[in-house]
Write a structure and sequence with these properties.
Number of helices: 10
CATH architecture of the largest domain: 3-Layer(aba) Sandwich
Largest sheet: 7 strands, mixed
Number of strands: 13
Radius of gyration: 19 Å
CATH class of the largest domain: Alpha Beta
Strand order of the largest sheet: 8-7-6-9-10-12-11
Order of helices and strands: EEEEEHEHEHHEHEHEHEEHHHE
CATH superfamily of the largest domain: Vaccinia Virus protein VP39
CATH topology of the largest domain: Rossmann fold
Oligomer: single chain
Length: 315
């Protein structure tokens, strides 16, 4: 806008579609590395605090990450009711396991991330996000391939959380949004277990991908719910899916959820309470219509691939 003052000389530009970009002004680069799997930046931004950027796509920022991580974790934990063992796939910043560990019922959380260099950098530079969760005695950190861990696991899990980076073709996780992957999840899920997937953006240009993810999940799990939150750092609404073989209460009583959270969790939540959970599960009509329309499923031979990466540049 004419007359506006720009206060950054370094910018990270994320490509949303071939016609849309989202640009963050960066005040300081805390870490940069090309790992064996992806390109990583940890930066300070002018508007959203510290942030993790992988392959040019913004993962989270200290100012608004709670809008993502609370929505990712707590609806599944609430739906399960008494989660003791939780498996987290991905989640390099440690914020996902931080939210899991709020639950007094949790006895063990196992986090599996393929990129140890990213995890190490997050431990060092993003203590606001992990809040010491890596040092909690209930935490088991595994640096490895989620597929291999699932293939070799004989444990049953009350909640499985897939917090993998977006399925761009060049990245490490684009095959982990497929029917075959969900079947592996199903094998290690407890009978009353809940599976939650970060399921990508749900703006109109790419709603078909989310819809196909939901329909892929339907081939494996009997009950599925699509829900969204808005994360300003992403510049668009973001979706999750909650899956189960037992019915999901999509019109819960807010007072009951508030009591459960008061009894079973510690610390203050910024997004989630009973009214929020009730609202999250009222899936908007355009998403419901898309799920009905786009019935194709994703497989290892035809996995989803999100558009684009991003670039960093000096002004």
């Amino acid at each position: 806008m004419a007359g506006s003052e720009l206060k950054a000389d370094f910018w990270i530009t994320e490509y949303i579609t071939p016609w849309d970009i989202y640009v963050h002004g960066i005040t300081e680069t805390l870490a940069y590395q090309k790992t064996a799997f992806q390109e990583m930046y940890i930066v300070k931004s002018g508007a959203y605090g510290k942030g993790l950027v992988l392959d040019g796509k913004w993962q989270s920022s200290t100012v608004d990450e709670y809008l993502y991580h609370e929505a990712l974790v707590h609806p599944a934990m609430i739906a399960q009711g008494n989660p003791k063992k939780v498996l987290v796939l991905g989640g390099g910043e440690g914020a996902t396991i931080r939210e899991v560990l709020r639950w007094k019922t949790v006895e063990k959380v196992k986090m599996v991330d393929i990129d140890g260099e990213v995890v190490a950098a997050c431990k060092q530079h993003l203590p606001e996000m992990h809040a010491g969760a890596f040092d909690d005695p209930r935490t088991e950190l595994v640096i490895g391939d989620a597929l291999a861990v699932l293939d070799n696991s004989e444990e049953e899990w009350d909640v499985v959380i897939s917090d993998l980076s977006d399925p761009i073709e060049e990245g490490p996780s684009f095959k982990l949004f497929t029917k075959e992957f969900f079947e592996k999840i199903n094998r290690i899920l407890a009978p009353n277990g809940k599976f939650v997937l970060q399921a990508g953006p749900v703006a109109d240009p790419y709603i078909a991908t989310h819809a196909r993810l939901v329909n892929t999940l339907k081939t494996v799990f009997e009950h599925n719910a699509s829900y969204t939150t808005f994360v300003p750092t992403y510049g668009e609404p973001w979706s999750f899916t909650l899956s189960s073989h037992t019915p999901l209460e999509t019109r819960p009583e807010p007072e009951a959820i508030d009591q459960l959270l008061e009894d079973q969790t510690t610390g203050d939540l910024g997004l989630i309470d009973g009214i929020t959970v009730l609202g999250l599960f009222q899936t908007p009509a355009y998403i419901r219509r898309a799920i009905a329309q786009y019935q194709e499923i994703f497989t290892l031979s035809e996995p989803p691939k999100f558009f684009g990466k991003g670039v960093s540049s000096d002004q």
